[in-house]
Amino acid sequence: MTLAAKAQRCEDEVFSLHLQDGLVIGHKVDPAGEVLYTNENCGLWTGRLLSALSLKWSVTGDARARAAAHRIARSLERLEQVTGVPGMTARQYKKMQGPGPDERPSRRSDRWYQGPQYRWLSDVSTDEMTWFLTGLADYIGLCAEGEYRRRACALMRRVLGRILDYGMRIVEPDGTVTMWGDCSRATPKEPLYCLHGLGYLKRGELFAGEPRFADAYDEYVLDEEYFRQAVNCYRLGTDLNYWSRADWMLSAPEFEVLIKHDRRPQRRALLTEGLLEAATAPQADVYGPLCSAVLGLGGKDRVRDWLERWTLADDTDGTEKGSYHWVYWKARSAGIIGAED
Amino acid sequence: MTLAQKAQYVEDDLFAHHLQQGLHSDRPVDPEGKILYTNENAGSYTSVLLSSLVHKWHLTGDPAVRQKAHAVARAVLMLEWATGIPGYTTRQYKFMQGPGHDEGGWLEDKWHQCRFHRWQDNLSTDETTWYFQALGDYIRFCAEGEYRRAAAASLRRCIGRMLDHGMRIAYEDGTTTTWGDCSRATPREPLFCLHGLAYLKRGELFTGDPRFADAYDEYVRDELYFYEAVHCYRLGVERGHWAARYDWELAAPEFEILITFDRDPRRRQALTEGLLEMASAPDTTVHSPLCTAALGLGGEDQVRAYLQQFNPEATQSGIDKDWFLWAYWKARAVGVISADE
């Protein structure tokens, strides 16, 4: 099977088997549409799907890819709408009165809220936010026009604006900080969160259409300690035992947007060093080398090797299919692989 | 002399001999600062110098270069402030009470006095193209904080004023200047449609004002307007509009920004065809092949040949020196040549 065929099959299966009310989940959904599963990271997976579809549209000009992107963008919008708090997103929503059978006791079982139509899960983390914003930014930058673009920009403006209003913290409806939501200068949860803070503000500057994000970026990036933590998030995170398996997937899009768009060559050089420190780690997953390859810093062979070795089985989790789909289209858009591969 | 040495020689020479009150002059200026010359395109060529310095800063990170870029940006921004009309720039200004002895020629009746400055009216797209291009580069790659805010605000006002007049450069009384009509209804030439789209795209990218993105979406969907923009070279030649000495330098930056940032791959493809149509002309200046090289479409050999053939010591024209400096740093920025050459 070619890489392109694998990517298409992943996409087909994500849409036919893993979309629960427009959100991507790992399990296979109920064919009758009944809500069966909780997936606390489905906002993340759905943001990544939006990014992949936007990249696909930009590379192919396939109108179906664009229509699919518009449809998934609506799901991201709904992550905000269901909370009833402008600028606050949910981890997940379910159209039901609850509690549902899937809300078995877990660390977040007390974080479900009931809205008029939807139940929604709070305690949004930077995991969610990073791909929510990456998906929206790619959608705005590569795909959405007219009303679609305006809605996406407004959504990003509200969500990022609320984070900035709370000093770069993701907060609950009552203003308290979520468990993994503190990207502030004063009390960042981990070094990686400083990288998130800068990455979020840079996206706001580029895609939200509001100058205050550029002003805030200039302020935050001049904080030497904050910037140092952002740059060295991998090494410091490893030293402090914070760095997790998913963190390459979370840090890569931040490094990419900052290395591409920061205005100071000295800072870009430092960020590049930080990225290479993370991307060349032996245990790094494909997101690290893909980011370095996109920036022309090496890593193409590892990406190609990963894409070729990856296999699709009947029991492959929907999030893994989504991951392959995104990596494929990111690699295509950066010219790492061709349409014939 | 290496290319790098030539570029440094030219930069030093431009700053020593070709700046009249901060604005570029083709001829050597008076060492005592006395106003000697009128140069109706001084604003445009000063903007080219700004773009060169921005690329140099972006590559080298030399703070002295950034300082120079800020100083030249101030002179460029003064083109708006000197008129006393928000959003309207002048072709050139002179700090004097007038009329001055230099005010002859076909624009001699277009001088105004605004407080301490004389300024020249009948602004054309020649001027605005490089005003917008250079400020766009400055905002994107160099200016932070107050510098960025001032540049973005000027772009917002100037493109906004054009948009308020239906993409026309308008005199204070609202009538259109001789070479200022980029409207959908009555564009002066096909090239002016390309300008209209590129100005709006820069507004979208660099001002943070969403109305430019809305307007771009509207204008780019006008099929005739887009067709004329794409084929501005062929149509311009057929209709006897194409100015073989100048129009390459005006069309190239527009093609580059649109091909880089338009969201529709089919439109990007059409624009690429239009660019290649223009770049294949035997009499093109270096701007076309440099644009194609920047976009990965070939032309590197022509750029390299131009840079190698240029003899700074034998060149008297400040304009030729200005273009060499810009071509050198642009070529460096896009990787056509390296620092060692």
Features:
heterodimer; A: 341 residues; Glycosyltransferase; 3-stranded antiparallel beta sheet; 14 helices; 7% strand; B: 341 residues; mainly alpha; two-stranded antiparallel sheet; 7 strands; globular
Structure description:
The complex is a heterodimer of chains A (341) and B (341). With 341 residues, chain A is mainly alpha-helical. Chain A has a single domain (3-333), classed as Glycosyltransferase (Alpha/alpha barrel), CATH 1.50.10. Chain A is 58% helix and 7% strand. Chain A is built from 14 helices and seven strands. Chain A has helices at residues 3-17, 42-60, 63-81, 126-142, 146-165, 191-207, 211-221, 224-231, 233-239, 247-261, 265-279, 287-294, 300-309, 318-333; strands at 19-20, 23-24, 92-95, 112-114, 118-121, 169-171, 177-182. In chain A, β1 and β2 (23-24) form a beta hairpin. The termini of chain A are close together. Chain B has 14 helices and seven strands. Chain B is mainly alpha-helical and 341 residues long. Chain B has a single domain (19-309), classed as Glycosyltransferase (Alpha/alpha barrel). The mean pLDDT of chain B is 96. The longest helix of chain B is centred in the middle third of the chain and has 20 residues, at 145-164.
